[in-house]
Design goal:
mainly alpha; 9 helices; about 85% helix
Length: about 180
Amino acid sequence: PQSFEKVRPAESYISSLLVEYLSKSRQMLPMKIYQTYVLPYKSNLEVLSSFAEKGKIYNTLGEFFYQHAKTLLTNADFQLKQKQFSKYQQEMKDLELLYYNSKSQNEKKDASRYFKTVQDQLAQEKQALKDYDNEKRLFVYHCLDYFAKTMKFSSGARSDILDKFCALWFQVSDEETINE
């Protein structure tokens, strides 16, 4: 039993391998992987004594965050959602004008009813955009953080990590919350 403890890998290392596997096999959504396998073991990483082991784990997690951050940053669905949101905003303005300029009570009633429907759709789109943006910021932040820690604790593959780190950082350089 005591000798097994000496060769048993750290839970953080096992968790990082699960993150890598689940991410590559797409068996779980990235946010669920983050919540299940990264958050619970995050504090365990700080107590590891082996710099090499820390470097491997940080690199594996950094790659996970990098792959998903790249996907989020180049996602065409996001632009589509933004266009849809703008369309709903314009519809609301048009309906408001129709309501105030209409002389007929039936037109006002129909415009009011449709206004409420569009208002609900707008609220849903706004929440979806907010959730998407929050996830993007979270994954970009963690990617940059883990890549910086990888470079700190690892001696190998620094140039590759540095290239990814810089490329991502420059891509989101206008994001004040990330740059803080």
